[in-house]
């Protein structure tokens, strides 16, 4: 009698913890440095109105630069779904690493599932995970795409980010209304013309409706 060996069944749900190695933070030292900087710029930091400004400034930056850990929940693609999944208009907030001024906008993330599908809220978590640090929009776009490609091993990944950069609207060129768009495509979303066109068309339609 020959005994048949059952094929391994993919895990129904997986929840790996996505973490970021944090550098040491010295808030007291940062507050002293902020006070020195504001005073050197001629601001009356000893006044009643601005006495707490160095502390508030430091804590605001600490909040914006604290990368949140999260559980990247995936499920077995038991239904064999292989069409495009698009999560659009994910709110995005980050800091330009050149001037430490905010850039804000939206991210559109699409993928062609392989053996695993990602919990939908985790797309927003992933965007926030990579945005909450000093960034460039170009690197942010590719980091999100590469992370999802590595974690999900899908047939294709696409990330489009549209953002307004205050470093070019509040200073310098003061180009109010200018919006920067970046894209990172992997797998079939890059190599297959029809699939690529479908994804980019859907993200463009979102921009037109706004």
What is the helix/strand order?
EEHHEEEEEHEHEHEHH
**Roughly how many Å is the radius of gyration?**
22 Å
Q: Which CATH C-level class of the largest domain is it? A: Alpha Beta
Helix content: 25-40%
Number of helices: 7
Class inferred from helices and paired strands: alpha+beta
Strand order of the largest sheet: 8-5-6-9-10
Please tally the β strands and state the result. Answer: 10
The CATH level-2 architecture of the largest domain is identified as 2-Layer Sandwich
Low-confidence stretches: 1-9
Measured between the Cα atoms of the first and last residue, the distance is 67 Å
The portion of residues forming beta strands comes to 25-35%
The profile of the biggest β sheet is:
5 strands, mixed
Q: CATH superfamily of the largest domain, please?
A: GTP cyclohydrolase I, C-terminal domain/NADPH-dependent 7-cyano-7-deazaguanine reductase, N-terminal domain
The structural domain count equals: 2
CATH-assigned fold name of the largest domain: GTP Cyclohydrolase I, domain 2
Average pLDDT confidence is 93
The rough form would be described as elongated
């Amino acid at each position: 009698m020959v005994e048949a060996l059952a094929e391994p069944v993919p895990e129904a749900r997986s929840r790996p913890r996505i973490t970021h190695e944090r550098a040491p933070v010295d808030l007291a030292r940062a507050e002293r440095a902020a006070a020195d900087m504001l005073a050197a710029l001629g601001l009356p930091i000893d006044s009643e109105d601005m006495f707490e400004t160095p502390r508030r400034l430091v804590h605001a930056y600490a909040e914006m630069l604290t990368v949140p850990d999260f559980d990247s929940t995936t499920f077995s693609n038991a239904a064999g779904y292989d069409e495009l999944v698009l999560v659009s208009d994910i709110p995005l907030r980050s800091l330009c690493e050149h001037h430490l001024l905010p850039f804000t906008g939206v991210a559109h993330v699409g993928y062609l599932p392989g053996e695993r599908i990602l919990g939908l809220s985790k797309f927003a978590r992933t965007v926030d995970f990579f945005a909450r640090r000093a960034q460039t929009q170009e690197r942010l776009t590719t980091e999100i795409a590469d992370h999802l490609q590595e974690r999900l091993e899908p047939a294709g990944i696409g990330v489009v980010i549209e953002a307004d950069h205050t470093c070019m609207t509040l200073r310098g060129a003061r180009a109010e209304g200018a919006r920067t768009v970046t894209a990172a495509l992997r797998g079939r979303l890059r190599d297959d013309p029809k699939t690529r066109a479908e994804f980019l068309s859907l993200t463009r339609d979102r921009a037109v409706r706004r």
